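We modelled the chain as a single entity of 280 amino acids. Its sequence is:
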Amino acid sequence: MNHKNYVLNRHNTKPMLWDAFFKEDQMKKPVVIFCHGYKGFKDWGSWDLVAEAFRKQGLFFVKFNFSHNGGTMENPIDFPDLNAFAENNYTKELDDLNDMIDFIVSKGFPFKNEIDTENITLIGHSRGGGISIIKASEDSRIKRLITWASVSDFGSRFGSAESIQQWENDGVKYVINGRTKQEMPHHYQFYEDFLHNTERLNIKRACLKLNIPFLIVHATEDPSVTFEAALNLSSWCPKAKLLEIKGSNHVFGASHPWNATNLPNDLNQVVENSIKFIKN
């Protein structure tokens, strides 16, 4: 079954939308929680097909929208709420992920008879990879970690000292979304939050603390997050397994919208290897 657009309401903060893909058979299944990346959302491109592939292999696959990703409860696709987008930061995403895990393992989870709460894997794409690494280093409930095209350093993503100074002076900076053509705002609080939490948000430090199975997947020709990021992660986690996807890009051949009924070959390779990693 595919259960889409459930709402997770929370106290004093924005709700989150989430989906669950699984075979309804009252069997306890390993849980896989997928974290989308920057300017991403749970319904992007071929993520539904990805979820379906995990479902078919007997896994319980959850994907969700980070609360400040720019989507709304009514329109979870693209970025109708740029005010929320402007107020996002790494700490909020870590809080969102924690609340999602808390909910899944709670007595109130609607599909609790279908899941093995002692068998949780995190998968993070791009920025969601960095978030997943930090969360996995902090939370013993997470038993396996997989990153797809993950960043290896948050600090370097902010740009030069001059551009950061300009950002502080203006209070906001804008990033053009190449696909939607929106000018997407980031309030300076994003950088302030990073400065206040630099140690926690250090991906290298998180990697060095990890002692769970870790699969690093990265395309050799990724133009958005270069393959060097994967080499960094691999050097900090020598027990991790590194899977190179030769010649592919940041989304392993997918795009948005994705109208084909099959996964692109590269992403299919990523999914098959990720499933094998979880099951072994």
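As a brief sanity check on the tokenised model: Residues 90-104 form the longest helix (15 residues). The radius of gyration is 18 Å.
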